[in-house]
Predict the 3D structure of the following.
Amino acid sequence: MRIAVVGATGMVGEVMLKVLAERNFPIDELLLVASERSVGKELPFNGKTYKVIGLADAVAAKPDIAIFSAGGGTSLEWAPKFAEAGVTVIDNSSAWRMDPTKKLVVPEINAKELTKEDKIIANPNCSTIQLVMALAPLHKKYKMKRVVISTYQSISGTGVKAVKQLENELAGVDGEMAYPYPINRNALPHCDVFEENGYTKEEMKLAREPQKILGDKTFAVSATAVRIPTSGGHSEAVNVQFENDFTLTDVRRILSETAGVVVQDNPDTNTYPMPIYAHDKDDVFVGRIRRDESQSNTLNMWIVADNLRKGAATNAVQIAEYLVENKLV
């Protein structure tokens, strides 16, 4: 099994390598791939050192699977070249997510849709993944009508530049800005770029991607995405209206029985999900589960996950695991 990690020197790429090692993914040959400026750099993996190679050399090597986390532009240009060489690409950017010819996959929900013919597979947005992990089993039971979500997203979702901005601000050092305003002691209602409708690209990902993953356009999602000065982990306040009524006991049971979801919900002991506890974990944590008393058949909950792991790297590796286990590569 020959695996290429494209964007290996980036923040998500580093976590991908960590997850591949932790999960003992079957690798006979590993190719670490990055932009030309990183070619020749050495990176460690499982006790060995690997030299970073360029994209053209990686295509020529024809790995079985290439896991991309190198930005949308790189994915649009290079994913088809890998696919034409017979490589199965798992792409972490937004480039292919809403392409009707490409699958958008969260393994616990819709991996069974994958076939050998799927040569470019899209990894959903980090905020979308943790959202649908909690919503999918509830939608199956109660059928969603409308979801209103407000996110509280880590600076790590922006990348290294944003992490450095916060570090500089905490240290009182002037430096390069990832955001148009300070992030320390602040909250920016501005994740990604603004679109013509006044929503940001991040908010529209949350509106569109769940429908595609769940294969259902009968429910609607309205989102507000906010960046806060946490260094890891995204949080979401979610209000979901169902067609059918529910009991809180059943909701907690359904979520507790869902693989990859952990319920942390006991106000008496101040037990609820927080980014500080989700850090470096692969589960999606759900708490503050309560009925919306202003509207019938409506639920409030709080969802937290490590955006670099289940929200990106781990989900991509799980897709690769499914492909290998089911002999789709």
In short: The chain has a mean pLDDT of 97. The first helix runs from residue 11 to 22. The chain has two domains: 2-124+312-325, 127-307.
